[in-house]
Amino acid sequence: MRIYPPESISRMLLFNPISKHGISHSMKKMNLILASASPRRSELLSLIQPDFEIQVSGIDETIHSNETPIAYAERLAEEKAASIKDAHHNLILAADTIVALHQHILGKPKDPSDAIHMLTQLSHTSHHVITGVSLRTHKKIETFSVITEVTFRNLHPAEIEAYVATGCPMDKAGAYAIQGGAAPFVRSINGSYTNVVGLPLCEVSEALSRYQ
Fold first, then answer.
1. Where along the chain do its domains lie?
2. What is the CATH number of domain 6-208?
3. H-type helices in 84-187, by residue range?
4. What is the pLDDT of residue 85?
């Protein structure tokens, strides 16, 4: 399995965002708004749709009692989309990516100790990365999720501590970024790579094509 750095994602996807056959051609009738502050999500979306506006959504991300990982990811995506008020003549795209280990949701670490604990849990096992995606217009809302299985090799405590010391895990669900310093931790992935980064481009491009 290859791990690609962020700057080579576009080459990996082999997608020309300005092609007359691409998504940008189908989005002429609506303005696209990305409801996310994530630079990774914005970078990925720009590969298939170069023209969009960013509006940051602010929601309560508290996990509800007995909420499953899929239900949680999809609910947050829907609430992010709903938090953008102006849906008139706009298509709002929102997403939320989480990590789940044995149905237990791993959010962003509270501190370095929490990050070390999360990565220790993920060591030498498989987990799921789930992205909930929501598309909203003034007429309807469409929500779905994409799941990727990620397997980590056995991680030595010293390399976990060194990675956490870089600060990279602190704003990441599950305390790692596959496109960053955690790339050497990943033995294999089963499913969408861009889903793990933060936006499943195949499924999102298919969904956007329905809004012509």
1. 6-208
2. 3.90.950.10
3. 112-122, 157-165
4. 82
Q: Specify the residue for token string 């709002």.
A: 92
Burial (0-12, 13-18, 19+ Cβ within 10 Å), 157: exposed
Task: Supply 180's token pair.
Answer: 């960053």
How far apart CA 3 and CA 181 sit, in angstroms, is 11
DSSP 29: T
Q: What is the pTM of this model?
A: 0.85
Instruction: Report the C-alpha gap between 121 and 117 in whole angstroms.
Output: 6
Alpha-helix residue ranges (DSSP H) falling in the chain: 9-13, 23-26, 39-46, 69-83, 112-122, 157-165, 193-197, 201-208
Alpha-carbon gap, residue 160 to 42, rounded angstroms:
28
Q: Which residues are catalytic?
A: 96
CA dist., res. 36 & res. 94, Å (int)? 7
Cα separation of 148 and 129, whole Å?
5
Burial class (CB in 10 A: 0-12, 13-18, 19+), 63: middle
Alpha-carbon separation of residue 197 from 130, 154, 211 (angstroms): 11, 21, 24
Q: What is the pLDDT of residue 26?
A: 44
- Does 102 score more than 70 pLDDT? yes
User: Which of 20-29, 141-150, 203-212 is predicted most confidently?
Assistant: 141-150
Tell me how far CA of residue 109 lies from CA of 8, 75, 160, 186, in angstroms.
28, 21, 14, 19
| Both structure tokens of 167 | 């600060």
